[in-house]
Design brief:
This protein is 22% helix and 31% strand. A 4-stranded mixed sheet has the order 1-5-6-8, with no helix packed on it. The chain contains 2 helices and 8 strands, in the order αβββαβββββ. It has one domain. The radius of gyration is 28 Å and the shape is elongated. With 163 residues, it is of the alpha+beta class.
Length: 163
């Protein structure tokens, strides 16, 4: 026995095949995999970098307030007050500062390679090395490399990965 399909019913079936079936077929492409971790590389720019800091311990710091920035800059320079060398201007309404220090080294360098946002944390990857671009005129025991960078302000925790 043969089934007869009328023209309006044929049209409905054709529209169904064109519109509904592809949507269901591509749903898996539209919805992200819940187990997949999306990462974004965060842009940043350097504020200052050098080989001599009065901060002699290896560490990474996050600065989100103007007062903290002035205090850190003062400690970095070894000054008693903020009048000798004023810290570079940073708009802390929109930005934050990340500071990395290599500590007391005989010959070394330090730099922020990249910052990755994994959705939960900002991961700061710091590379240290033995390059010495501009040797300070003082003796090598005073070398304590550092870098200050600025990037968009974030409320996410910052995790340092020191190489």
């Amino acid at each position: 026995m043969r089934t007869v399909v009328t023209t309006p019913l044929k049209l409905v079936l054709i529209l169904f095949m064109i519109l509904v079936v592809p949507v269901e077929a591509y749903t898996n492409l539209i919805e992200p995999n819940k187990n997949e971790v999306l990462t974004i590389e965060i842009p940043f720019s350097s504020i200052d970098k050098g080989l001599v800091s009065n901060i002699k311990t290896s560490q990474g710091l996050v600065i989100k307030e103007q007062f903290e920035w002035y205090e850190l800059w003062r400690k970095h320079l070894g000054r008693k007050n903020n009048y000798d060398n004023i810290a570079p201007q940073v708009n802390f309404n929109q930005l934050m500062v990340i500071a990395v220090f290599a500590g007391s080294q005989s010959f070394s360098s330090i730099r922020v390679e990249k910052i990755i946002d994994n959705g939960t944390n900002l991961n700061v990857y710091v590379k240290s090395g033995t390059e010495l671009i501009n040797k300070p005129s003082s003796n090598a025991s005073e070398i304590s490399p550092y870098e200050f960078i600025k990037l968009a302000k974030s409320s996410k925790p910052v995790v340092f990965h020191m190489d």
